[in-house]
Amino acid sequence: MDVLADASGERPARWEGRGGWSSDPWQVWEGSSAGSLWCVPRLSEVIAELDALWPPERAEGWDAVGTVCGDPGQEVTRVLFAVDPVREIVEEAVKLGADLLVTHHPLYLRGTTTVAASTFKGRVVHTLIKNDIALHVAHTNADTADPGVSDALAGALDLRVVRPLVADPSDPEGRRGLGRVCELDHPVTVRELAARAAERLPATAQGIRVAGDPDAVVRTVAVSGGSGDSLFDDVRSAGVDAFLTADLRHHPASEAVARTTEASGTPLALLDAAHWATEWPWCELAAAQLDEISDRKGWGLRVHVSKTVTDPWTAHAASPESTAGAPN
């Protein structure tokens, strides 16, 4: 498995299964090279394996997962994983010579009446088809998988997963579900946990926002890749010290802190990272899973992970400490 480095040459950590991430944050797996000894799979065969990892029927009813475009009979030798199916990623897939692009986010989440090239999403579809690149999406079915999006997030932060935050009732083993409740190997402060997240998650303009006492001690933490403020009731029920997620809004965050303070006398610490950054570790995990399948089946796939930052926010101007607060 190859990880595409940016201009700085930096590479993200590699996944080592349910145990977490490697101690060397920039170590990368060397995938197998396709050659005459390998059996080149058809797209339908690769998709069947992806659907076994992330069954489409486990996606939320409102979600749009599965194969967006691609000929089931086409051969697949290179696969690119990314969070977003946007122009920059598609251009990267073309340059790479990928036959399959797998993204976490859907291209058409709310449906459409046109894929005309005059629309920006239509141009994505046209570019993919013209270059014989299939697009496959694993979204909420990857969120709840075991291992899934939040397992990868926990692994990136060296957190020990205890259980799902919201268990899937259809899983008798209690391993699937939304979010993860985690423990730390040793207590840290909220400030230290935020610094760890800022260091180990991909860099974005937002960084990590914190609500609560920065010096409060954290022993247990809930994590949820992507938007997480719909899970506040479950977080409170879990009794954790902190919650790390993305896209936290003013009112839900304010109420969550107030309610935990009222109930226990200790406010819940909130750590708000960029949406893209909390889900990117899953790309590494997913690529490693497909890489293992490829080796087992003798496919010789070249599996890559994009490092292109597709977080929409590009800059952050912090208020000077001397002028913090409302003006007089």
Number of H/I helices: 9
Radius of gyration: 20 Å
CATH topology-level name of the largest domain: Udp-n-acetylmuramoylalanyl-d-glutamate--2,6- Diaminopimelate Ligase, Chain: A, domain 1
Mean pLDDT: 90
Largest sheet: 6 strands, mixed
* Lateral strand order in the biggest sheet: 1-12-3-4-5-2
Q: Tell the overall outline.
A: globular
Strand pairing plus helix content: what structural class?
A: alpha/beta
Query: Would you state the CATH class of the largest domain?
Result: Alpha Beta
Domain count: 2
Number of E strands? 12
Task: List segments where confidence is low: pLDDT < 50 over at least 5 consecutive residues.
Answer: 5-35
Helix content: 25-40%
Which range does the strand content fall in?
15-25%
The H/E string reads: EHEEHEHEHHEEHEEHEHEHE
Characterization of the model:
- This protein has a six-stranded mixed sheet with strand order 1-12-3-4-5-2, sandwiched between helices. Strands 6-7-9-10-11-8 form a six-stranded mixed sheet.
- It is 30% helix and 21% strand.
- The longest helix has 23 residues, at 275-297.
- The chain has helices at 43-53, 87-96, 120-130, 140-143, 149-156, 190-200, 232-238, 250-264, 275-297, and strands spanning 2-3, 66-69, 78-82, 100-103, 134-137, 160-167, 177-189, 209-211, 217-227, 242-246, 269-273, 302-305.
- It has 328 residues and is of the alpha/beta class.
- The protein is globular.
- The protein starts with a strand and ends in a 23-residue tail after the last strand.
- The protein folds into two domains: 2-142 and 277-305, 3-Layer(aba) Sandwich (Udp-n-acetylmuramoylalanyl-d-glutamate--2,6- Diaminopimelate Ligase, Chain: A, domain 1), CATH 3.40.1390; 144-273, Udp-n-acetylmuramoylalanyl-d-glutamate--2,6- Diaminopimelate Ligase, Chain: A, domain 1.
- Helix 8 (250-264) links the parallel strand 10 and strand 11.
